[in-house]
Amino acid sequence: MKVDRPDDSPPRRVLVLGGTGTIGRATVRALVARGHAVVCLIRRRDPLGPADPTALPKGATARVADLMDPASLARDGVCGEPFDVLVSCLASRTGLPDDAWAIDYQAQVNALRAVEAAGVTHVILLSAICVQKPILAFQHAKLAFEQALMESGLAYTIVRPTAFFKSLSGQIQRVQQGKPFLVFGDGLLTACKPISDDDLGRYLADCIDAEDRRNRVLPIGGPGEAITPKAQGEHLFALLGREPRFRHVPVALLDGIIAVLSTLGRLVPALAAKAELARIGRYYATESMLVLDPATGRYDARATPSTGSDTLFDYYARLVRGEAVAERGDHAVF
User: Cβ contacts of residue 289 below 8 Å, gap of 6+?
Assistant: First the structure.
């Protein structure tokens, strides 16, 4: 569907990173709908294999480039052409330290240098709200690039969204199979304002013409009130016409798993990686994806801006009816 831009705003040449992910594809759709000329840089899943096979939205151009190689970025990505805007939805697939520093930081820095030479004057970065309280490698890597971007001299818009629908859909199948819904503690430890791919994609695309979003760090959530894991489970059972059943997992269990894996990881690198994944899981089990009040150290749902119209519970209903398929990928927790 064609979406009009402001009358005095010309179409831009936009270079997109991470355009084949679920949020990236939604963002590319929104950019194309607004009449922008969109070129997506696609990284290879296997350095020796073909490019990512995921089809881009119609109207966008794909180019395969090695984001870790500045020469490839210039030769195969930018191709000596001018661009106006860089939109980056790029993110490491696992969040493990090596992956995070390679993709969330170094690949982004490489791209920033390449687009500066191509004439880009505005960079729109998809970051994450969890960097407010950084204890994990991928959070520090994201913050390091945010800082590099802010110091680059280019206009920037850094968007920090809350939870994504796909991250909160991992238990639908187990509940459909008659199993209980898993919650940590009492299910009220955390809350979030989940946002859909399309609502977030439209928000990112609109940042191009929104002067009031320039040179700002913008937390953003979806519509409605903040939702706890317990509320997610209750609504899912209601959709299925069943009485709610929960299994309460103590956070201390995660702590024990992390301690064991960390100890064994000193001898077995694969277990060290599993320990980091467990730490990531614990973080999301105990920290809300809402704006953090630095004065009180508490998360504030009222201070977390909302946008869009798609709700998590409408998405759950579509999944239950078979009208949608959850793409969870590497970020699945359950």
Answer: 129, 130, 162, 163, 190, 191, 192, 193, 221
Residues 6+ apart with CB under 8 A from 111: 17, 41, 67, 73, 77, 86, 88, 90
Token readout for 211 is 């002067």
Tabulate helix, strand, coil % of the chain (nearest 5). 40, 20, 40
Q: How many CB atoms lie within 10 A of CB 79?
A: 12
pLDDT per residue as tens digits for the range 246-296: 999 999 999 999 999 999 999 999 999 999 999 999 999 999 999 999 999
Q: Are 161 and 204 in contact (CB under 8 A)?
A: no
Count how many Cα atoms sit within 13 Å of the Cα of residue 205 in the half-sphere of its side chain: 28
Q: CA–CA distance from 282 to each of 186, 189, 191, 258 (Å)? A: 15, 12, 14, 9
Q: CB 138: neighbour CB atoms within 10 A?
A: 25
Q: What is the largest CA-CA distance in the chain?
A: 62
Q: Which residue has the tokens 């977030």?
A: 200
Question: Alpha-carbon distance 123 to 87, whole Å?
Answer: 6
pLDDT digits (tens, 9 = 90+) for 146-203: 999 999 999 999 999 999 999 999 999 999 999 999 999 999 999 999 999 999 999 9
Cα–Cα dist 282/269, whole Å: 20
pTM over 0.85: yes
* Token pair of 66 as six digits: 């090695």
